[in-house]
Amino acid sequence: MSAASSAAPDSPATGAIPELFRRLFDDAAVFPPGNLPVAEAVPAHRGHRAAWYAEAVGPLLCGAGRLGELAAAVAGGAAAASTGAPASGGAALRVGLVLPGGSAELGPALAAAAPFELAGVELAVRDAAEAVAALDRLLPPDVPAAIELPRELLRGDGLGEVLDVLIDSPYRAKFRTGGVVAEAFPDEEELAAFLTGCALRGLPYKCTAGLHNAVRHTDPATGFEHHGFLNVLLAAQETDRAAAAAVLAERDGAVLAKAVHALTDRQVTVIRNSFTAFGTCSIAEPLDDLAALGLLPSTPQPQEDR
């Protein structure tokens, strides 16, 4: 039985998740390669938020073009709950708004997201200064945001120029660590340049895609070179690019687990102030990896399989 499947039927256990992993896994179930239908993703996310591992789970991520589906799924769950049928009803759904179409999407998407508890906005653009200006103008002050630029603009001198724009803003950077083609996966040097560039500037960031396993590996089915989220967590405290690249290249889970166990509370704070979250289409896989490496406490046993 997977760690994620052992969800207790009552309220989540406070303190079940170590601080290093709290709110780390944003639920990207509706995005590739998972592509879970929205109508299924909503009750699944509700289940995650009620499970023993709820402290590890961030918001449900949704693209601007699917907010109508999301509203219908939530309304359907509420209607089913009113008749006593099993449903996904409950507290307001926390949604992370993903905007791949740039600043022009921001205003309409914020209006469409009004029925939800807006947990954050992720804005993909080609001009960091334009994105900062649009967010300053339109985003409610209590809503966090992350700005993603194409990787080709984050190479060489372009990386420093972009990160410098974000330093004086309240917004995080966002970096794409994978996708559905091999070219979508940056190598260790490229990712290390981003991580250390942010670390040197005290700039927080989130990552997305390709990180749902804990340890650096080659996918046997696709041949894609996946970064491990444990590698990224440990590299997040480095300011030296070569040192960060070495951590990112480590493929021995036992070595990474030992390094995690050795972290001080201060190091954990530094790491999570830098690497705030990543989007994963699976919540179960990262939890199962952590359990296999001995980095999660013993999980509560369920009354029945779900």
Q: Main traits of this protein?
A:
single chain; 306 residues; alpha/beta; two-stranded antiparallel sheet; 11 helices; globular
What does this protein look like?
The protein has helices spanning 38-50, 67-82, 106-112, 128-138, 157-167, 188-201, 229-235, 241-249, 253-261, 265-274, 284-292; strands spanning 25-27, 57-63, 94-99, 117-124, 145-148, 172-176, 205-208, 217-218, 225-226, 275-280. The chain is of the alpha/beta class and 306 residues long. It is globular. The chain is built from eleven helices and ten strands.
Question: Nutshell version of this structure?
Answer:
This protein has 306 residues and is α/β, with parallel strands linked by helices.
Backbone CA Rg: 19 Å
Ends: how far apart? 10 Å
Average pLDDT rating: 90
Choose one word for the global shape.
Answer: globular
Number of strands: 10
Structural category: alpha/beta
Write the layout of secondary structure elements.
Elements: E1 25-27, H1 38-50, E2 57-63, H2 67-82, E3 94-99, H3 106-112, E4 117-124, H4 128-138, E5 145-148, H5 157-167, E6 172-176, H6 188-201, E7 205-208, E8 217-218, E9 225-226, H7 229-235, H8 241-249, H9 253-261, H10 265-274, E10 275-280, H11 284-292
Parallel strand pairs: 1-2, 1-10, 2-3, 3-4, 4-5, 5-6, 6-7, 7-10
Antiparallel strand pairs: 8-9
Helix pairs in contact: 1-2, 5-6, 6-8, 7-8
